[in-house]
């Protein structure tokens, strides 16, 4: 069985630590370095006590050039603008890079710069980067050098809506995506707004009409629609650790469309996907059923009163929404079984 | 200061116990009876330990006729169909009734029977019953004998959308209401689905396209619109005790409509309402800020990209969504200050 | 009805904001200033959204001297060492001071300095300060100028153990106090350890054998015992907003002691206390029953197998453990009804 | 690689479903039947949605005799008294049985009957049953036919205290064990007391001085002490899904005993145990670090002021406290690697 060596930059954020958890359980990966700007020199298992007895290494300084010498793949779970400031042709000649930030997700650099308020330092690499939504872009991913790992909200939104947009069963301009996320999506930074007592026992929307995953969702949906798509997207913070639930609303393209056509569309695109579970009629996705796993559960209801379809999808934001999909991308890049290291049964309760 | 006597039927559910909490703190009310079918004969404070030292009475058998003899007002926080099966002209000649169930909320008895799957036993009283959404129906409430206290989701949805529908600033048929509720809304019945470990760390939609508050919202919005309105409404269960957050989406009636017109509409209808707090631009409602209180916080964002307005509103489902609004109705019925007994500052954290 | 003017220093911490909540509901108090070093000049209701429509003032710079000119009482909910560095005879000639920090709680300045690792700047005021455990020190509190408001753990521990120590029913040197606290006790500082995802779904002990409330508990118990008492005290962090539950274990002084003697001791000391609810046999305190209130629920079990008594007590750490007891002290200082502004029914669920 | 066939009786409780989760991920086990009295005939993945796409079988009626014909091992996660009513010599001649109930844990049948208030139906099998605390009884377990899988509280308590009792470093009669458990320990029965809103935001003790795990702890500790031991044990319910934290207090046998001797005792007994992680000085166990895993984290503090040691231990009540230890026992019974199927990294956050 082939094995590879991997390193992580940004290992002490929640997505980085989840990468560590998954890669430590992957039969074909040896983890070399746990790069962390903030914690370099400190024992990684002192920060993430769950890894005690699994990891004895200290965090290392995050040196991409040097990591590229030894690792077959480097994962970057870093702030926006970090990777684009240091990624070079030279690095890509030595190692594969899977980036969990947004730096190479959006093909139009003006759009990126407008939504992120960051000047992009390596726009010449954007076209080459492959958008790592595995179920949609599988064949483009396999030979890539750099993967733009999708955003958590985008993954959940895209897998919900893609088949219906691509099959022209809904009117994409009517799409309203209302998403609810666990708090790990807000990261591990020490902000008052994310303290236990501030998040617990409350729900709120945030970034209304201006969340940065909006252009990413729109770009990907536009490919599916074959035309520019503009949508409403609203993220919400929910008092739970993990999980994203998307509830999406769209008008049917035609009033005669019913459950069977929509079911057929999902079946066509995802019927044989290991990580997508299409739920039977009457069953709604719940985030608890996917916790700790790379699965996406999708269900829907056709509402004859409003001529709309209500689509629902649930995933674990740290797994399929971040680290798990990154590992799935790695499996594609190196020719491993696509679900290698990702077969754990979701944890409940 | 005038005082009245009140009794509760259904005192041991969450809404009933919240009524008890509020009425015990009301300076003009004496609570006579804590009616409960399941717990009759047991000390009320043994079931709700928070009431220890406030309530020394046992729960009584719920006898409406007899309560009507002594109480100036009877609150019913009972299952659907209960009150409509026992309410009579004779009772209403003796006492006021404030009903927290849905029995008299919907004027069209066929609609009620279709959504609730219950045959209505006293349809002759439906027209007389006044829909107790205080901020909208204040003057009709004052002289009423029987109040249909609104549903929790309906209150939050209506107060969000009413001014914009009434002022024709949005296209009502485009309205999508995505609501998130704390688990106390599911009641105190011993169901596996509502166990701690089943609800905790998860989000789900339920009753999609068929929740019973839908026709109630539609009927009330139709009055505002002056025409029949059909909407999408989706409730979600959130892992928290209290709170409803509504996020509502609607297309602007006209692309020139901006923040100021919408603000003016809210100001016109709610600018002087004690219990409605209109939030400044950039502030989104959060359920934590209204916990334990009768307040409704409302905010909105106009999205020029989609020509939609995103309206958000937060309330406490047990207070403004149930018991608090019932007390507010009682205050109107008896000529008390409308906020009597309802002035507590929300509890945070 | 007499009224007074009050100001707060440290109004934007959880204890300070809780003081604001309680004082805003107090019929005899006008709140003048919301002092906050970090948020001076910002609208208080923008930080604590629950106070919107109740407070229109900005936070002020915390100037004790100037506050003393206008306020009849100043509450300080400030870091250890802050008040002792600025409190003067001159201030105390103008206003009463109720201090929620530990600065004047411990009579022995060496003990204070050893446990807090702070040099005390005004040791000459320590003797004058009255330890504000109202149920024990009521008469000393009334005429005081400066009140050392007890710690949250200390209040819960003392009220649990005091009668049994004072009546010599237990052997104080065998006392083991195991306490569980909600996370608001950790304050509102932006620390990684207190983020939602770090606290949620976990329990831990902290400060084992060295928590700063230990000497405070020991000093107060020593007064009761009439001799020096050394105890084991272990605080734990629990995934909830509010509440402290103390479970205390002690060997009976004599094997013949049974439930009735212990009950009699609690009855003797606390039988007529408004804020102490002595639970009947078989009922254990639960923090949910005291949330948002100044009540302390106390229960116990005599274990004939081990000849120990297991005492349990629950309170709300922000109310009876901090702001509520501070208001109770204020009521004593100004001759108000001791429960004025503190009569709200606990909020459940 | 040898493989075996396993069946579960009581598969739809939390411990049973956790067994399913672990066995589905075990490389040497095929799961045959998901026995459930309540859900026989219903799809298992319809009850536990996390298992969708892993399990396509329906729940079966729980027939021990018939399961024994086909399965190499049968796990019983059933109510107290169930297995002892049906287990026979004939069954044990055909299959191994690992019982997660208390039926065969206590050697003295009078003690069992007194604490459980159940008449034991097969006392003749009690002596043969091996108490499956793997780290202590490993060699006795390997050849056994029936394993009494330890209680969750007992496992955590025993692993905390065993080395110190066995090495006579503490006085066992002074041992006070204060335990905090997640709510999954209360099972999946539809009881009002375990509803989300009843458990959330609260802490309470229960079963004080009479919890059924007490005699089990005492029996096992008595073996270690070489004499009868009586202890104080108090369980608490915490608002979290999984996890037990034990905080145990005991007087040192001798005042000269310090950290190094205690550390040496733990090292002697557990230094080479895969599933026990002995924490360095200054680190306290936290349940979050063991979630979803079979690990037990142990730490302690010697308190020179009180001459006590405070021991802390954390485990996942559904894994090491139930299903994981059951799998560990199975691995011992069949000669598999002791950690086979149990190597997943704990899930955080």
General description of the model:
4 copies of one chain form a homotetramer. The first copy, chain A, is an alpha/beta fold and 349 residues long. Chain A has 2 domains: 4-128, NAD(P)-binding Rossmann-like Domain (Rossmann fold, 3-Layer(aba) Sandwich), CATH 3.40.50.720; 153-317, Dihydrodipicolinate Reductase, domain 2 (2-Layer Sandwich). Chain A is built from 12 helices and 13 strands. In chain A, the strands form 2 sheets. Chain A has a 7-stranded mixed beta sheet with strand order 8-9-7-10-13-12-11. In chain A, strand 12 (296-303) and strand 13 form a beta hairpin. The two termini of chain A are 34 Å apart. The A-B interface holds A 176, 178, 180, 182, 197-198, 200-206, 208-209, 230-232, 234, 236, 238-243, 245, 247, 249, 284-288, 291, 301-303, 305-306, 308, 310, 312, 314, 349 and B 176, 178, 180, 182, 197-198, 200-206, 208-209, 230-232, 234, 236, 238-243, 245, 247, 249, 284-288, 291, 301-303, 305-306, 308, 310, 312, 314, 349.
